[in-house]
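Supplementary Text 2. Reproducibility record for the structural model of the 783-residue chain.

All settings were left at their defaults, and a single model was retained for analysis rather than an ensemble. We include the record here because the model underlies the residue-level annotations in Supplementary Table 4.
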Amino acid sequence: MELYDYEKKHIELLRKAACECMVLLKSDGTFPLEKACEVALYGSGARKTIKGGTGSGDVNVRHYVTIEEGLKNAGFQITTSDWMDEYEVKYKDARKLFVKEIKQDADKKGMPAFLLGMGAVMPEPEYELPIQKDGDLAIYVLSRISGEGSDRKPIAGDLKLTRTEVRDILYLNEHFQKFMLVLNVGGIVDLSPVNHVKNILLLSQPGMTVGDSFADMILGKQYPSGKLSATWSAWEDYDSEMDFGNPDDTVYSEGMMVGYRYFDTKKIVPMYSFGFGNGYTTFRWNVTNVKQQHTKMNLSVNVENVGDFRGKEVVQVYVSMPSGKIIQPYQMLVAFQKTKELMPGEQDELNLCFDLQQFASYESGTSSRILEKGDYVVWVGTSSRDTRDCARISLKENIVVEQLQTIGQDSVDTYGTVKRSDQIKEYEDWFNRLSDEELAYLCVGGFQEKGSQSIVGNAGMKVAGAAGETTSIFTKEGLPSLVMADGPAGLRLSRQYGVDEDGIYAVGDEIPAALVEFVDEKILAMLGNSKEVKKERNGATYNQYCSAIPIGTALAQSWNVTLANECGNLVGEEMERFGVNIWLAPALNIQRSPLCGRNFEYYSEDPFISGKMAAAITKGVQSHPGCGVTVKHFCCNNQETNRFHSNSVVDERTLRDLYLRGFEIAIKEANPAAVMTSYNLLNGEHTSRRRDLNVMVLRNEWGYRGLVMSDWLVSGFAMEHKYPSACAAGCIKAGNDLIMPGGEAEIQNIMEALHHPDSKYSISRRDLEECAASVIRTVKAFV
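Retained model, structure tokens:
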């Protein structure tokens, strides 16, 4: 397998990056190993290693390295191949039954099976397989997959461990002097039955080099330096009163008390705290200087490696705010920095800065961000539970930081008058020559009337496997289409494509791998891919191998914005190579509950580190001319259950201070090319139809000038729900500039609303011109 030069370069980067994302939760000092040896390898992830989650976040790589393969590459002799062979048989049998049951359930409900199968998690099966004792050490790789379209469950084989897993892990821990439990997971699992074992590594799902990176790590060629970006504990420790997974209305009654904010405020000691992580060495740190200027703080922290191995440490700063009229969580993260690599005895001086005004709280009664008078306690440490009180900022009076307007109410009728910045004038002459319908086409993604694969996020026409494009009907007028590819763990394109007289076509990968087993002949025919309708095409074939970077959660676990920037730069290089303009990433929704099936795409339970990571990866991508990102999903997309019609009920303070803050950081610091609205409703109205979000917040408050676009198939499927699907005209009226992936139904909906003033979402030609101007300006910035 001869690799291209760009592949070699990217693999080299990712092989090192993966280790920086790994979190060593427990260690007895037996790792790293001195040399390769005989290893007894067990667990679901040993051979069926997971590089990342399913759905639009998957990446069709040329190849990725499993744990089994990586250990063999490093010279280990694996003594348990027979066990893995037998496990595969058990898994395949369980999978067949799982798919059969989903198809039967879908048939009863009268809906396509792939809608139920998308992201559906098959619980790890129970099995009886003998455990061998041959080997110098044992490794058990526990895997969990999750994905778009389905949430997790607090049951054995998903968030909890199975009886089989607990039995085998404890047996290996007892019978092998050297044993490591490896967690090849995208999110939290309840480790309470096995948390006392000798060594636990959160491998996470760090991309295409996962197996080689793991081998490097246990041999000491690399080392784990990650820290948790979410609190890990027993399932029973999480907020049992949190409303999650309601198909209609999910009430965010916990307010700000999410993740470590909840654990710290309620004084619940978690199994592993936010920001926690060990390494192969130990560090000592001291605050050497504190400078304060009003609400600004600069801390100098000296970090010394006092252990026997090289490594990196992360210093974190938290602030406890006074609780006056506004109820505050115990503390919040306000700054962090990772050291350079430190050899034993080496030191690094870090400077951590923050301004309290950036963390001012929203007060609903006055619609303002304020800092209440009182003492602000500054904590410095290496996790949310390992800190020291290092400084105080005392305010003698309240400070109004920013005056805002009310948003997020259950009625958005009053927001029709919210004005966006005037961007029509520069295109006025052109608009005067366009008909209403031509304007509508500018605001709808490019589409083909037949053979569209938009239903599975594969509607690209210029790049095989791309998710979609802007319209191409104005190419002769100097306005070509922009190509969009899914993310956020790399570009999701077809690995091979052909070119003939009819254009490009995918060679395989037409349907995401996770959906293939749920897609029947009827759906294939609708996509133009059934055996009956798919014609033979014999054009020249080309490769477009993309790289799978660490999932969002893993990347955040690095606590390294430079690394995030490098991964963004890698993606930008591949976008240039394959002709992609817009990457549908990064995703920075808050990990509100461990049960969200899409948490692996998101960075953290904390908005500050989420925003910083998203800003860094955005800058990396957009350092390449003609390449941009789409931060998503704006906003409160925190569950997958009934994701097209689920209503998130959130108070305004929580909305602004928790769920919008990460977006604000990313947008103000990195100016992403586009923002994608989410499927869900917010307080009774789809986010894509909320002018208060798309205009008042994004454009008026944050000064955003980029493109606002919908998620794919925002109009949803014709099924009965408490809340109706969003509609194209409503999106346009709300300042959602572009409806993706596009279709004739969206054009018709816009035209009907334009010519019928009594329509619920009636729009004016000016509404269309505002959105069209945003699309044009974005396209022109890329060509």
